[in-house]
Every structure is written in C-alpha cells, then in structure tokens.
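Posting for a labmate who doesn't have an account.
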Amino acid sequence: MMGFITHCWRKNGLELLSSLARLLCVGILSISTAWAQNASIELTELKALRENGNLVLNAQMSLELGPVLEDALVKGLALHFVAEAEILRDRWYWTDAQVGVSHRYYRLAFQPLTRRWRLNVSSEPIAGTGLAGSISQSFETLGEALSVIRRQSAWRLIDLQSLTPDARQRIRYNFKLDVSQLPRPFQIAAGGQSDWNLQVSRTLRLNQDLVR
C-alpha cells in the first residue's frame, strides 16, 4: 500500500512539476514577446558630407512604433516627429556658438476611408491642419511610411562658406516623437509611458578637411 501511494505521489508530483515548467516557459515567452513589441528607436548611421558647396547630413535609424502607438494611429490620432540638426562651434570663453540649425517635421496619420497611410514632411512645424506648406505622400502600409521617416538622406544643413575651417565644430542631432502636438489629455496620459518617449540623440564632430 505504501509503495502504491509513493508511486502515485511521484507520478503526480512529476506531472505537476512538468505542468509548472510549461507554464513558466509560456510566461517567459509572453513577457519576452511583450517586451519585443515595445516601441523602440536606435540611430544606426549619422554622416556629414559635402555636396554642391553645402554641408549635408545622412541619418538612418531603426524605428518601431509598437502596438500602443499603432493602435493610436488606427483610432485616428496623428503622430508628429521632429528631427533637429544643430551646428555648433566650440568657444573656450563662453557657451558654444550656434552656427545654424535645421529641422524636419513629420506628421503621420491613418486614413480609415481609403485604408492608407498619409505622411506629411516639412521644414516648418506642422500644426493642426496646416499642411499646405508640406510635402504629402500616401502609402499602402505603415512600414512604407515609416521607411521615409527612418532615412533622412542628403539633408542640406548649411552653406560651407558659413563654417569656420580652423574651428572645432560639430553637429548635434536629435530625433523624437513630439508629444507636445498631441491633444492635451493624451499628453498627460503619455507622460509616464515609455512607448511615447521615443527619442535619440548623437553628436558628430566635423572633420576640418570636410569644411575647407
């Protein structure tokens, strides 16, 4: 009788441990999947070049919105992004001098009637429905629209003659999801959520041979 009870206990105990192990694996996979779906951004390339007497910038990033931001888009909320490239000259006696600054503004929205994605790009802030001065494009998929935002090519920053060849100069690049363009209730709700805190920055030192 004792052997039978011991055998049953061992059998049931092993089955219980096996079930717990499976549940643990499922839980870990679920957590990993949830983390993988979070919004993320990473700058993969930042390069300054000479082109037709101008200083131009190439930037490439890995940008994923994740389900929270995608759901907001589908429900009718437009997302605004802004890229800023500030050119600074070092000064030992005072704060660094701003030589120039350029912006690119993006407004991404979903159009439910056509089931297409609309992207507006402008060098001036895009506020509300003031889209007249922007370049508008429509895309079949969200990925196609994001590919335009992810890559900023041949972005003209400044005339090379405006730079000082012998000075130490740099580009301070910043890209972010501009939550200040959201309706006020969304700004408050987004304040504590990491999905809405999409931002990446990097400083690029300008080679003196580049600006001569």
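Reply:
Got it, the structure tokens are right above this. The two ends are 95 Å apart (CA to CA).
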